Amino acid sequence: MKKLFTSESVSEGHPDKICDQISDAILDEVLRQDPNSKVACECFATTNFIVIGGEISTKAKVDYIQIARDVLQKIGYNDSSWGIDSKTCEILNKIEEQSTDIAMGIDQANDVIGAGDQGIMFGYATNEAANYMPLAIAIAHDLVYLATKLRKNGEFKDSRPDMKSQVTIDYTDQKNPKVDTILMSIQHNPDFNEAEFKKFVKEKIMNAIVVDKYMLNSDFKVLINPTGRFVIGGPQGDTGLTGRKIIADTYGGYARHGGGAFSGKDGTKVDRSAAYMARYAAKNLVAAGLADKLEIQLSYAIGIPKPVSIFIETFGTHSIPLEKIYEAVEATFDFSVSGIIKELDLRKPVFFNTSRYGHFGIQDCSWEKLDKVNQLKKYLK
Questions:
Q1: Residue 112 has what pLDDT?
Q2: Which residues pair with 121 in a beta bridge?
Q3: Do 312 and 325 contact (CB within 8 A), yes or no?
Q4: Dihedral sign for Cα atoms in the order 346, 352, 355, 356
Q5: Contact between residue 268 and residue 341 where contact means Cβ atoms under 8 Å apart
Q6: I want to staple 233 with a disulfide (CB 3.0 to 4.6 A). Which of 16, 31, 49, 237 is the partner?
Q7: Would you write out the chain's pLDDT as a tens digit for each of its 381 residues?
Q8: In what order do the strands lie in the sheet with 38-46?
Q9: Letter string b/e over residues 214-247, b meaning 16 or more CB atoms within 10 A of that residue's CB
Q10: Given the DSSP bridges, would you call strands 84-85 and 78-79 parallel, antiparallel or unpaired?
């Protein structure tokens, strides 16, 4: 029996991703003006209508509605016949200030920061891809990223912003995984040439990523717009919500998830910051050779600065005793809220780029740096 595993990704024109981008664009602008802001911003999108809500405590002066319009414009939603128009859509701002009950537990004496909520977070890394991400989600992100890039530069004719990809990897031979199936659903103009459209997707997108970039097999099964038509898309085809693509945002289901969403939340919200820190630790541990794949779980209590628990799973791939890995983690990483914010520099406006194509595996993000590898390699001796 084949061992198959599947992950999906969505483009920046997907309705949920529109909302993620607006939330993180607002977060970045607030932090740009006031790095100590407390932000929890969420959006809802439907046909030609956006609601911005949540809690923000800040000294910044921000035009939330204009930021939302700018995001829509950059994505390409500038035509009301596509379901939403950046220039004319109705946008409702319902932002309020953060609860004082929550605020009193976050900012404590001597620059100590308490966790903004309770919860569990997971970080994961594997050496099966160059960016230490699971292969299925890495390819899925690359497919919709390339398709969007080609749409924006005019090469991908008749395509529209809303897209999805789904990649199935065959792990029957664990040492030589191959691509079994690729599915792409891509919004298009009503008068498109279907044959040319599908030929472009297979040759210029699927083959470009799977064969040329990842140097994998070309004999995978192909599914492109399997219903036969995808004209109505974006917020008109489906409502959008911030934080609804938590699996595509992380590891494509290959690792566990604590359930908390990321976008629109500042660094005091451990749903986001602790998940980033757990990824940072897991990636450095795998890159140092302490395990081939590794998952870290952290848990926090509201108002408490440090995690209540730390759990490490290597799936039997560790190269040193597990007790020694725990020792290395404790000596190398500071999982306190203030320690995370300082280590990953999370008071800066660095979040918008994470709102598209996943929060992990992105080279320029601080939680993707490999600056602890040499320190961790000492534990191999």
A1: 74
A2: 298
A3: yes
A4: negative
A5: yes
A6: 237
A7: 899 999 999 999 999 999 999 999 999 999 999 999 999 999 999 999 999 999 999 999 999 999 999 999 999 999 888 889 999 999 999 999 865 555 545 665 556 788 878 899 999 999 999 999 999 999 999 999 999 999 999 999 999 999 999 999 999 998 899 999 999 999 999 999 999 999 999 999 999 999 999 999 999 999 999 988 999 999 999 999 999 999 999 999 999 999 999 999 999 999 999 999 999 999 999 999 999 999 999 999 998 999 999 999 999 999 999 999 999 999 999 999 999 999 999 999 999 999 999 999 988 899 999 999 999 999 998
A8: 90-96, 49-57, 38-46, 240-241
A9: eebeeebeeebbeeeebeebbbbbbebbbbbbbb
A10: antiparallel
The pair of structure tokens assigned to 378 is 């000492």
- Cα radius of gyration (the chain): 21
Name the residue with tokens 């799936």: 315
Our measurement of the distance from residue 178's CA atom to the centroid of its chain's CA atoms, rounded to an integer in Å, reads: 24
The answer to whether 258 touches 63, Cβ cutoff 8 Å, is no
378 CA to centre of own chain: 32
Checking phi first, is residue 121 left (phi over 0); if not, alpha (psi -120 to 50) or beta?
beta
Q: How far is CA 285 from CA 126, 240, 350, in A?
A: 10, 36, 24
Q: Which residues contact 346 (CB under 8 A, 6 or more apart)?
A: 266, 267, 273, 276, 340, 366
**Residue among 358, 246, 272 nearest 40 (CA):** 272
pTM above 0.85, yes or no: yes
Rounded to the nearest angstrom, the gap between the alpha carbon of residue 84 and the centroid of all alpha carbons in its chain is 24
Q: Which residue, among 30, 59, 118, 116, has the nearest Cα to 338 in the 3D structure?
A: 116
Residue 194 host element (H or E) = helix 194-200
Q: Tell me the residue type at 372.
A: K
Q: Which amino acid is at 94?
A: K
Name residue 119's amino acid.
Answer: G
For residue 46, give the H/E element and its range. strand 38-46
Paired sense of beta strands 221-224 and 178-188, if any? parallel
**358 closest CA partner among 280, 249, 219, 268:** 249
